[in-house]
Specification:
Largest sheet: none
Number of strands: 0
Structural class: mainly alpha
Number of helices: 14
């Protein structure tokens, strides 16, 4: 598999994350940790149904499991907690530093060029427009903001360190999902009260488990292990933009000038960061 194809597959995860907000909205009322437990269980279970022998690849050193489960469960737990401890817009803005951190951290495993960094900062500017709607306010740092930054650091660290264990088969991601489902269920029982979803909620949960919180992790694993991490990081800023555009198409959000500007910034940043790959193509 070439680096370009692996990077494209990794970006497939970003495309799946574009429907995360829509499906989560459809599952409104379900506590976040309960939602994570159900979705991780569906994602892990589906992988075993599609590849019955995949569990044999789960025999890996504890460090591999710590990296994978820590990345999937750790990031989502910290993100959920940050939304409780800080204003959601501010927490989301800080959490979306993970693409930029991936670009910067990628220097430890591959050559980092100026256009990778420039593309990532253009993407960050676009993400700021999407998350804030163009309304900029200075906020006082709090513990919740620190938790949101920790979430960004965990996901970027997991993504970059996956390159160090590139020989581990991607099928093990199913095991990570199962373990994350168990830990999410424990956290749910400790912090939340069970809410029974309605029919529409179950459909949304199934969609989340099969796509944004299921197949997306397998695609992301391929991209991180074999693709161009710097390009993948810069292109990941498309996730909040595409997610908002999906909400606009579904009639759950309004179009605005900030979306147009964000589209130009994020697309331009991704193209700039990927200029070497595009030239080879």
């Amino acid at each position: 598999m070439t680096r370009g194809i692996a990077t494209a597959l990794g970006f497939g995860a970003v495309l799946l994350w574009a429907v995360l907000a829509l499906f989560t909205t459809r599952a409104q009322g379900v506590p976040p940790l309960q939602l994570l437990a159900l979705c991780f269980a569906i994602g892990g279970g589906a992988s075993l149904l599609l590849r019955p022998g995949a569990w044999r690849t789960w025999r890996q050193p504890w460090g591999v499991w710590a990296l994978g489960v820590g990345g999937l469960f750790g990031y989502h737990l910290l993100y959920v907690l940050s939304l409780r401890m800080a204003p959601p817009v501010e927490a989301s803005l800080i959490a979306y530093l993970w693409p930029l951190l991936i670009v910067l951290m990628s220097a430890t495993v591959q050559r980092l060029r100026w256009f990778h960094v420039a593309g990532a900062f253009l993407g960050l500017a676009g993400a700021v427009l999407v998350v804030t709607g163009g309304r900029f306010e200075v906020f006082a740092p709090s513990a919740g903001h620190g938790v949101a930054f920790a979430a960004a650091f965990v996901w970027s660290g997991y993504s970059v360190l996956s390159r160090r264990v590139a020989e581990v088969p991607t099928e093990i991601v199913g095991g990570f999902c199962v373990a994350a489902a168990i830990l999410s269920a424990i956290a749910h029982l400790a912090l939340e009260t069970w809410v029974w979803p309605d029919a529409g909620g179950w459909l949304a949960i199934a969609g989340l488990g099969m796509g944004p919180l299921g197949a997306a992790f397998f695609l992301w694993d391929i991209g991180c292990k074999r693709g161009d991490l710097a390009v993948l990081g810069a292109a990941s800023y498309a996730a909040p933009l595409l997610s908002t555009l999906v909400l606009v198409a579904a009639g759950l959000a309004d179009a605005s000038w900030t979306l147009g500007a964000a589209c130009a910034l994020i697309t331009g940043g991704a193209v700039l960061a990927a200029k070497d790959l595009l030239r080879r193509g």
